[in-house]
Specification:
By secondary structure, this protein is mostly helical. 40% of the residues are buried. The strands form three sheets. It has a two-stranded antiparallel ribbon. Strands 3-4 form a two-stranded parallel ribbon.
Length: 436
């Protein structure tokens, strides 16, 4: 885990204390079920429930000798329970406990990520409506293309994030799953009904079939989903970084009082948190590959996936949770500069309306290829001389044979370019767009 990028919630969820507590939850659930079925004495269940406890230093002390964490755990608990400890871990193999307990931890992690996803969606929606009609230049290949609005950018990201939700729910359900099927998945010591009852008591699903472990396609799918979600967060952060460039400066991530941008240049206001999100997305994506590599295990189980998951599951969930929370703060506190947007819309002196002019000529019967050549001719002159595109169009004899001065002026209309913004918002936000 990377402590610097850990939120308090995730630090608790992935703590050693929570890990062993979840192991104990599974062990106690098994004892209760076995007690109800008469497989272990009721007094043993009562004693185990009353006395079962663990000390992390003691577990670590035992593990230093056994080199087996689950045995160290069960031994440490058995020391607390006493004579009835012979019924603790009854009929179980280590991974029955570890995989099932990991599902309990992942359930909390998924819920925390979902909460932060909802918070970011709410912030994006607020900004979308706030800046719904604020014109800004749209860029393709990094070059000025046609006008759009700042609100549409936020609406786009909102829609993308909404698409992540069902995938996150599906992948989350996949990993929030237990198994109590024994050393090779045959229920040699405890029957399938016990597995179902234990998992139901813990509030999780159980696998219809497993080996000693749950199949790791579940975890690969979950990590892949987090990788895609991280990519969405990177896309948003990258756009803000571009908008914050000095020569653009249409928007800027929050810069706090007392914050410093550079040790050498006091004037600097850098998009450091957006850059951080872009960098951390790379780490999350790298963990996806590791999760995919974990799918193939020898026969009914080997341990090659275990060491990997001890890194990639806490790290990926923690990083995504941190990225979501950080980006929500950036979006909610974003500095927006409408004057810079107006200046940039005018930067190319009308070239951004060339597409509308092209359509006007074709509507007057000019072949598209011919109209394109006439308009491009004027556009290239504007690029090369710094002249006003509309003035150059008005001076072009070929174009003027088909369009009057008033008709040409109508093509240079920002309102016409943005006339469907309301319709797009209705698509994204349904009836809520109407209320705005």
């Amino acid at each position: 885990m990377i402590p610097r990028y850990t939120t308090p919630e995730m630090a608790r969820i992935w703590s050693e204390e929570r890990k062993f507590d979840s192991w104990l939850q599974v062990e106690l659930a098994v004892c209760r079920v076995l007690g109800r079925r008469g497989m272990i004495p009721a007094e043993a269940v009562a004693a185990i429930e009353a006395k079962a406890a663990f000390s992390i230093p003691r577990i670590q002390e035992i593990e230093a000798v056994t080199h087996h964490d689950v045995i160290a755990f069960t031994t440490a608990v058995a020391e607390q329970v006493g004579e009835h400890s012979r019924f603790f871990h009854y009929g179980l193999t280590s991974t029955d406990v570890v995989d099932t307990a990991q599902a309990l931890v992942l359930r909390e992690a998924v819920a925390a990520i979902r909460t932060e996803t909802d918070a970011l969606a709410a912030a994006l929606k607020t900004m979308a409506f706030r800046h719904k009609t604020l014109p800004v230049i749209g860029r393709t290949h990094g070059v000025h293309a046609e006008p759009t609005t700042l609100g549409l950018k936020f609406a786009l990201w909102y829609a993308e994030l909404q698409r992540q939700r069902p995938f996150l729910d599906l992948a989350g359900r996949g990993v929030v799953c237990g198994k109590i099927s024994g050393a090779v998945g045959t229920f040699a010591h405890l029957n399938p009904e016990i597995e179902a009852e234990v998992c139901a008591e813990l509030g999780i699903d159980h696998a219809p079939i497993s080996t000693q472990v749950l199949q790791r396609d579940r975890h690969a799918q979950f990590l892949s989903t987090l990788g895609v979600l991280a990519g969405t967060l990177e896309q948003i952060a990258l756009e803000i970084r571009h908008l914050q460039r000095t020569e653009v400066r249409e928007a800027e991530e929050p810069f706090r009082t007392g914050q410093k941008g550079s040790s050498a240049m006091p004037h600097k206001r850098n998009p450091v948190r957006c850059e951080q999100i872009c960098g951390l997305a790379r780490v999350v994506r790298s963990h996806v590959l590791a999760a995919l590599e974990d799918q193939a295990l020898w026969h009914e189980r080997d341990i090659s996936h275990s060491s990997v998951e001890r890194i990639i599951l806490p790290d990926s969930t923690t990083l995504v949770h941190y990225m979501l929370r950080t980006l929500t703060g950036i979006v909610a506190g974003l500095h927006v500069y409408p004057e810079a947007m107006r200046r940039n819309l005018a930067l190319t002196r009308g070239l951004i309306y060339s597409g509308q002019l092209l359509l006007a000529l074709t509507e007057r019967g000019v072949l598209r290829e011919t109209a394109y050549a006439w308009i491009q001719r004027a556009a290239m002159r504007a690029w090369e001389t710094g002249g006003d595109f509309q003035a150059l169009v008005l001076a072009d004899a070929d174009i003027r044979r088909h369009l009057s001065e008033a008709e040409i002026a109508r093509q240079f209309s920002l309102e016409h370019q943005l006339r469907h913004v309301d319709a797009i918002f209705r698509r994204v936000f349904a009836e809520e767009a109407v209320e705005s």
